Amino acid sequence: MIRPALAALAAVGALALVGAAPAFAQGQDHVGRGGVVFVQTNELGGNQINVFDRGGDGRLSLAGNYPTGGLGGAAAGSVSDHLASQDSLALSADGKTLIALNAGSNTVTSFRVHGDRLQLRTVVGSGGQFPNSVAVHGRLAYVLNAGGTGVVQGFWIHGSDLAPIPGSARSLGLANGDPPNFLTAPGQVGFTPDGSKLLVTTKASTSSIDVFAVGPDGRLSGSPVVNPSATPVPFAFTFGSGRLVDGEAATSSVTTYVIDAGGTLSDPLSASDGQAALCWIVRVGDAYFVSNTASNNLSSFTVDSSGQPALLQAVAATTSPGPIDMAASDGFLYAETGANGTVDEFAVNSDGSLTPIGTVTGLPPGLEGIAAS
């Protein structure tokens, strides 16, 4: 049976620290150092990266547009969430390489980053169908292909060029089409902070979090440890307090887990925001912000030292229709909204609340993928 929040997700076609007050990343009165935000347009006729300069006040201004050399995609049944995933655009930790996914042409593009300018370096096959999420750890990248059986494919990053790793592809054993349905497409691929494991969420396909071991040669274990999620439809994740912090859409919950050395998840601790279709999650200091795409808002959580999540604000901010992927930098939060094609801008206050500071308009509906430096 589809639970209420999951039903709301289908209807729109998108799918606290205890005791002392937590210390958040920045206060409202801070002055940012400037930076760059990258937004993937995911246009079916030709994918592009829009590059924005970030002012000291957090507001964005367009600096340039760069074609990826591939096509955007749209998951079956999607409206606001065309890629149905988190991290379809990824920036390397050193800020020098940007990796974009072309779901409509089954390719991956890498750029060399020169401040607010991009230099196209490689366009290579993704190793499967409908690439929708990419993870980077050091010189290693893995792309999640959401169509068909679901395939993760590894790449080495040489400079900012991508080279497929022979023998690195692993199937998730799913049964999706090409394009996949937005509810059953796997949602995210990501490394543990130490790079020793690679995780994939399968959303409504199997409601599991699959964990592969990563070898020194960049290849994965032959098969993953398949962990049922504590609540249905695990979508997007991050890490904090030594635990996996996972957004689970069916009950609009955040669940944290311990990951043991063998890849088994244990000690699940959950809390719901009471909204509809919690899917994306990003950490800013000690706060975890989530996008509720069927409620058109963002919520916030904290996680205490035991790993227990607690709702900080059920509605930390309202957004334009269909909030999806987010990125954060220097105490500012940016949320894409797929229905209208906007990026909503927020300052993160010292108490973990959000102050709206503007909205970037004029982007295409169906955009997805955002990264910030």
Strands, helices and their partners?
Layout: H1 4-12, E1 35-40, E2 48-54, E3 60-67, E4 89-91, E5 97-102, E6 107-114, E7 117-125, E8 131-137, E9 140-145, E10 151-158, E11 161-164, E12 170-171, E13 188-191, E14 197-201, E15 208-213, E16 225-228, E17 234-240, E18 243-248, E19 253-259, E20 265-272, E21 278-284, E22 287-292, E23 297-303, E24 309-318, E25 323-329, E26 332-337, E27 342-348, E28 354-360, E29 370-372
Antiparallel strand pairs: 1-2, 1-29, 2-3, 4-5, 5-6, 6-7, 8-9, 9-10, 10-11, 10-12, 13-14, 14-15, 15-16, 17-18, 18-19, 19-20, 21-22, 22-23, 23-24, 25-26, 26-27, 27-28
3D architecture notes:
With 373 residues, this protein is mostly beta strands. It has a single domain, classed as YVTN repeat-like/Quinoprotein amine dehydrogenase (Methylamine Dehydrogenase, Chain H, 7 Propeller), CATH 2.130.10. Helices cover 2% and strands 49% of the residues. The protein has 1 helix and 29 strands. The strands form 7 sheets. Strands 8, 9, 10, 11 and 12 form a 5-stranded antiparallel β-sheet that branches. The protein has a 4-stranded antiparallel β-sheet with strand order 3-2-1-29, with no helix packed on it. It has a 4-stranded antiparallel β-sheet with strand order 4-5-6-7, with no helix packed on it. The model is unreliable at 1-32 (pLDDT under 50).
